[in-house]
# Entry
Amino acid sequence: MLALWRIADPGNVGTLMRTADAFGAGVSLSAECADPTGPRALRASAGAIFRVPLVPWDELHSRGVALVAHGGEPLADAPLDPPLTVYLGSEREGLPSDLASDCYKVTVRLPGDAESLNVAAAGAIALYELNRRATT
# Structure
């Protein structure tokens, strides 16, 4: 499950929908997320919005992993046993500290001098890692 906290860019919402569809995950949208049925989100989702289960925010799994830019454990070391909700924060502010504090905090560390990933890329990497573990 991907939980999108105030993701403002409709292209990111659509891309995350498409990625969730590829990995068989559901999506939950917080208030103030971009409209997943808007033209840019629909285009980026390539129709995935019509296949991905949308789960109300208050029905998310109680066990969560928060993808944070700094201070988290490496994704490869995180306990990622399902059922699990992966929280992704807004492009500018990330996740609020009270939401992240209830979760195991992980970060996707990049080689070299790269600062951070686009939220859609980080979500895709997290879903890939969950899938990799489930299939090995």
Summary: The chain has one domain: 2-135. The helical segments are 10-23, 39-45, 97-101, 119-135. DSSP finds four helices and six strands in the chain.
